[in-house]
Amino acid sequence: MRHAQYRGKSLRTDKAGTQDQATGQDQATPEADSADIPADSLYSQASIDELLYMLEEEKLAGDIYEAFATLYDVRIFDNIAASEDSHFDALLNQAESLGIDVDAFVFQPAGTFVNAELQSIYDAFLADGSSSLEAALTVGVQIETKDITDIAEAAENVADTPLEGVYENLLAGSEYHLAAFENLLV
To answer: What's the CA gap between 66 and 143, in Å, rounded?
Structure first.
């Protein structure tokens, strides 16, 4: 990833703005004030595990789009990768504010995942999208469709918490990304 903020150090070389890079739509930086609330007092272990999964899933999306940006030199992949950085950062901020250790995967190189399921998905998406630009755009649709489903479920599981607001903002961004990929496939 190019821009995940972690303990004040940038892991990426460029910064994502507060505007969805693919659509130009304003996108609020999804952060909530839960800094002094212990994770176990507000969230179940299942919700914390889901947050970690979602964080690594955002890394997957950014890593795939960066790989496709290099392969095809098509602006949509750079733009949406930058937006995925802001999604990653928002979830990272939540995890850190809850005192959740994310070191296991935050420092993994691009294309490397702790979660075996996500590693398998990444490998399959990379192989599929490497065959043609159209295939890469189709992978973008698949990633965003999966993200939308997963984010919506995660938001339901943490209703009426600060994390729900973060997930709702990510959901809106993923819907914009999906529309952008679909528009290029028409």
So the answer is: 14
